Amino acid sequence: FCTPCLQECLKPKKPVCGVCRSTLSPGSRALDLEKQIETTETACNGCNKKMYLSKMRSHAASCSKYQNYIMEGVKAVTKEPLHNTRNFPNRFTFPCPYCSEKNFDQEGLVEHCKTLHSTDAKQVVCPICASMPWGDPNYRSANFMEHLQRRHRFSYDTFVDYDADEDDMMAQVLMRSLRDK
């Protein structure tokens, strides 16, 4: 994780995991994982130099061949930006489907609903899912709170390129996996 993203997850009010957003228990270090990082050897994808995982980040920052490797990947998935931005759905802020309070980010909506609407059994449309290309704006979740807990523990933006179709993404993944061998 980059420092700003990690710091966001470690805010004092509610430290959470950077991937699944589960609450972190304070003060517990994963010593077994630290040891594994210190003793597992790998090779740089740029220059093929072997080193321990614990040294990889500092090596990657100074390895020009690794930087070129990363830029190849960025070029492979970067597309020309579309000029008409008015037709893009808002995937950054959402209204509460229960009380219509507006402008929650995904994490904020989940927290708001857990705090104020955890016992509300009304079937509602998930505003996060409805904003997705595959989302159905008419689908009402039978158990919205369960849906939030299971489906929105992480942000789709981290894992999804909304502008690429599935065939393009699969081709890119396959090409990248062949180059990584």
Automatic annotation (TrEMBL):
Domain C2HC RNF-type: 44-63
PROSITE patterns: ZF_C2HC_RNF
GO annotation terms (biological process): protein polyubiquitination; ubiquitin-dependent protein catabolic process
Keywords from the UniProt entry: Ligase, Transferase, Ubl conjugation pathway
InterPro entries given in the database record: Di19_Zn-bd, RNF_E3_ubiq-protein_ligase, ZF_C2HC_RNF, Znf_RING/FYVE/PHD
Catalysed reactions, semicolon-separated: S-ubiquitinyl-[E2 ubiquitin-conjugating enzyme]-L-cysteine + [acceptor protein]-L-lysine = [E2 ubiquitin-conjugating enzyme]-L-cysteine + N(6)-ubiquitinyl-[acceptor protein]-L-lysine
Pfam families, sorted: zf-Di19, zf_C2HC_14
Pathway it works in: Protein modification; protein ubiquitination
PANTHER family: E3 UBIQUITIN-PROTEIN LIGASE RNF114 (PTHR46016:SF3), ZINC FINGER, RING/FYVE/PHD-TYPE (PTHR46016)
Protein name (database record): RING-type E3 ubiquitin transferase
Taxonomic classification: Eukaryota, Metazoa, Chordata, Craniata, Vertebrata
